[in-house]
Amino acid sequence: MIVLRSPFSNSSAIDNFFDELTDPVQLPYWRDADHSSFNFSDTVGEIINNESKFSVQVDVSHFKPEDLKIELDGRELKIEGCQESKSEQGYSKRSFSRMILLPEDADLTAVKSAISNDGKLQIEARKKANSSRSIPINFVAKH
């Protein structure tokens, strides 16, 4: 027989409620899981935007390179990852999508990417050459 009671009806019930939460037998299966394995690509890593380049790093360590796609539409850089696996135990799917707007002075024809052995995706674009330059003033003496 199961007896339902409000855990908040009195202070001893609240204490019992929290004791039940910390009882190792009743903890949810995911409590002791490695939660870092679920935190894939949740944020964009280091971003560099200086005079010479724009660079962004994304952790894609949970994805194979063939599971990734990078597209550039104008200045919009879209990074996507999708991984599906089927087994006797079931089906799982991981995916992420990030959109980054490149700076106006980024050379869109020079965007390149590389992935490291530890799963860090680096996307880089050099900056356009500054078209302004100093023009020296020559002194011309009158004769």
From TrEMBL:
InterPro entries: A-crystallin/Hsp20_dom, Alpha-crystallin/sHSP_animal, HSP20-like_chaperone. GO terms for biological process: IRE1-mediated unfolded protein response; protein refolding; response to heat. Residues 35-140 form the SHSP domain. GO terms for cellular component: cytoplasm; nucleus. One of its GO terms (molecular function) is unfolded protein binding. PANTHER family: HEAT SHOCK PROTEIN HSP-12.2-RELATED, HEAT SHOCK PROTEIN HSP-16.41-RELATED. Belongs to the small heat shock protein (HSP20) family. This is SHSP domain-containing protein.
